[in-house]
Amino acid sequence: GAKLGGTAMTMWNADVYGYDNSVDPLYVDIPFFLILRKGITHGIFFDNTWRSTFDIGKESRKYFDFGAEGGELNYYVIAGPAPADVLRRYTDLTGPMPMPPLWSLGFHQSRYSYYPDTRVRQIAAEFRQRRIPADSIWLDIHYMDGYRIFTWDPKRFPDPKKLLRGLQEMNFRTVAIVDPGVKVDPNYEAYRSGAREDVFAKNPDGKPFVGPVWPGDAVFPAFTDAHARDWWARKIAEFASAGLAGIWNDMNEPSVFNVTSGTMPDDVRFRHDGRTMTHAEAHNVFGQQMTRATQEGLMRLRPGERPFVLTRDTYSGGQRYAAVWTGDNTADWAHLRDGVTTLLGMGISGFPFAGNDIGGFIGIGDADLWTRWAEAATFFPFMRAHAEDAAPNKEPWAYGPEFETYNKQAIERRYTFLPYIYNCFYQTSRTGMPMMRALVLQYPDDPATYGVGDEFLFGSDLLVAPVLDPHSRSRSLYLPKGIWYDLRNDQRIEGGKSLKVEAAENELPLFVPEGAILFRAPVMQSTTEWAASDLTFEVFAHQPTRREYYEDDGHTFDYRQDGFFRRTISVEPSASGVNVTLSKAEGKYVPAHRLNAVVLHFAKRPRSTTLNGGAVGARYDAQSEQLAIGIPQSSERLSIQVNW
Ligand code: MIG
Known about the structure:
By secondary structure, the chain is of the alpha+beta class. The chain is 22% helix and 27% strand. It has 11 helices and 39 strands. A 9-stranded parallel beta sheet has the order 18-17-16-13-9-8-7-20-19. It has a 6-stranded antiparallel beta sheet with strand order 21-22-23-28-25-26. The site of ligand MIG has 11 residues, from loops.
C-alpha cells in the first residue's frame, strides 16, 4: 500500500510476520499513487504485475521514477483536479468496491485458533451473555484435518453443520480460513481432483511445483487460469455449503516455508487465458485471482447473496473481490499508530474496505492498548479482533470488568453509527472516495492536512481522532478550515488550527463539520436487529445543508434494480426556526424501522412544530439544545417546520 510522503518501495507481495514501518515490500501491492502539486492532483497507475519499484520523492524531490523487471510499460496518468476526481477515475478503470453484506460491517471476533467446537460456541455465548455486540466468529487453521483445506478435524469439529447452524441461531455468522496450499496426499480429495483437472502451478519440467506450508508439502492452484478458478470455486461452494457466511484467504502472496525468498521460484509456470506466464509475472496477482475465485465460489453457492471474502494479499482491482486486513501486526503502540496511517494509505490506493487486527496479532499488549485500538477501529472500515496462537486471550472481556465496560462501549458505538457507516460504504461503492479517508483527500486546499496520518475522516461528516498513546487522557489534533462541532458537547470550534482535547479511557474524540447529518441507531447486539430498530437523523447545521440517505436490505443484489430506499434531507435554518424536507423516497425497498426521528442540534425552544402542516410529536431538551421530532415510517415527501 501507499505511504504518505516521500518514499521508495518495491511491489512484490510478501509474508512478513512481525513487520514494522521500515519493512518493504509488504503483503499488498497497489501500483497506484496520487501526486498533489500546487493544489492540483493527478494519479499514476502502473498496471504491471511484475516485481516493480517506485521512488517517489526520496532520491529527489524534482522527479520520481518507476519500473518493472518485465512486461509492458503500461501506465495511466489520471487527471484530477481534486483527489476525489482521481480516485473516481481510477475506480472507473479498476472497478468499484461492491456493497458488502451489512453483517460484515459489524464487529468480528477471531483468534488463531478457536477450537474445539465447544470453545467456539462458548465464545459466541459469552458475547451474548455480556451483551457485547458482535456479528461473527472466525475459524483459523486448527479447524482443518491436518491443515488440509476444505476438511474439518473429525475430533475438534465432529459436526460442523450443527455448529454453524447453532451459531446462526445466536445471530453469529461464521467465517473460515482457506489457504492456497493443497496438501500432497493421494488419499485426499482436493489433491486428487486438482491433479486430475491439472489446476496446479508447474515447474519448468512440467511437474507440479511442490513447496511446504502448514500441511507439509503442498501444491498451489494456478489462479490466473480460468479452469483452475472454476475448480476452486466449486470446492469453495461445496465447503461453504456447511453454513459458512464468508471465507478468509491467507498465505496467498503465496507464502512458502523454508526458502529465503519466502515464495515460489520465479520460473514456476502458470496458465493464463491460453498462454503461460511465469511466477515472476503471476506473483503479484496470485492472491487477487485467488479472491476472485473464492468470491465466485460463494456466488455460485448463494447467487442472491452478497459474498464476503477477506484477504491478506491483493493487487489493484482486488477491491472488487475482497476486503483486506494488514497481516501480522504487533500488540504495541507503534503498530496502533502506524496501522491508522497504513489504512489511510489503503484508501488513497483505491482499496477502501480494510482493517487491521484489533489489539495486535503478535505479543501480549495490555488493557489500555486493546481499548484504544477498539476505539480507533470503531471507524476502521473492517473491525476485527484477532490474536496469534501464542498470545493470551484477547476478547473484549479479557482485561477485567473495568476495561470490558470500555471495550463494550467502543463496540456499541460502532453499532450506533451503522446507518451512517453503511451510507458511507454506499457512497464509496459509487465514487471510489474511501470511507476512511486521509484529511488531504477531503481538504486538498488546506496544506496543513498534508501528511496528517494519525486522525482521519469517516465519510465527509465525521472526523475521528483516536487516542494513540499509552496512559494518555488527551491528544492534539488538527481540524481543517471551516466550522466544526465536538460531538460530545456540540461545542463550536473554528477549524484551520490544532487543538488539544481531553479523552478519558472510554472516550473517542469525534467532530462533525458544519452542515453534517449523521444517521444513527440505538445499541444492538448484531446487525440482525438493525432493520427493525430506531433510526435517527442528527442535524448539525446553522447554514442550509442537504444529504442523501440510502438504505437497502443489506444482503441481496436487489438494490441494483429498484430494491433500495433513497431520499434527500434538506435543512434550511433561519432566524425564526428551521425547515426540514425529506424528499419522496426513490426505490421500492421499505425500511422496517420502528421509530424515526430528526434531531436538530443547536435548537431553540420551539413555539410550534408541524409535519406536512399537521401536528407532530416533538421533544425539546433545553440543556443540550436538541429538538427531537418523530417522523412516520413513510416514503412520501415529509416537510417539517419548526418556529421559535
Ligand atoms: O503462518 O492461520 O496473518 O492472521 O492467524 C501464519 C494462522 C498463518 C497468518 C495470518 C494470521 C493467521 C495465521 N496465518
